[in-house]
Amino acid sequence: MKKILLLLAFLLPVLTFAQSKKDQAATKEVEMLERQRFEAQVKKDYALLEKLFADDLVYTHSNGKQNNKTEYLQSIRDGKSVYDKIEVEALNVRAYNDGKTAVVNGTITITQPNKPDGTPNVAHLKYVVVQVKDAKKGWQVVLWQSQKQPEAKS
Question: What is the DSSP code string of the chain?
Fold first, then answer.
């Protein structure tokens, strides 16, 4: 019994370290993919967006409107969701489940075409994303939710 306890005492830190290594690698990969996805949304790179969004995506816009994957991609195609620029202000990725699940939260600034009166159309958003790593498809966004932030007063 003592030998088993000694073995467990030795192995537990090793196993915990190995798991955190997988989570660390997943964190870096998901952060890179988040930035690529924002770029793909601006450039309308539908092939990449098809790959990065899961088929069961739930995409909740900052106004509360909810889309599935097909609806959201169509909204970009139809010009309902237009992004001139997406700037990442803050990005925090936490990996779980041995590097197979990631929860992301951050702050972005989205610049869209000017309003009809010519004023800039800029939105400051806080958002949460859940990504899951599929053995065949890689990392995919299964959930997006954002909330508009008040304009900074000068």
Answer: -HHHHHHHHHHHHHHHHHHHHHHHHHHHHHHHHHHHHHHHHHHT-HHHHHHHEEEEEEEE-TTS-EE-HHHHHHHHHTTSS--SEEEEEEEEEEEETTTTEEEEEEEEEEEESPPTTS--EEEEEEEEEEEEEETTTEEEEEEEEEEE-PPPP-
Domain span at 42: 2-148
Q: What is the pTM for the complete model shown?
A: 0.81
Look up the CATH number of the domain holding residue 97. Answer: 3.10.450.50
153 located within any domain: no
User: Is residue 126 a part of any domain in this protein?
Assistant: yes
Q: Confidence class of residue 114 from pLDDT cuts 50, 70 and 90?
A: confident
Q: Does residue 154 lie in a domain region?
A: no
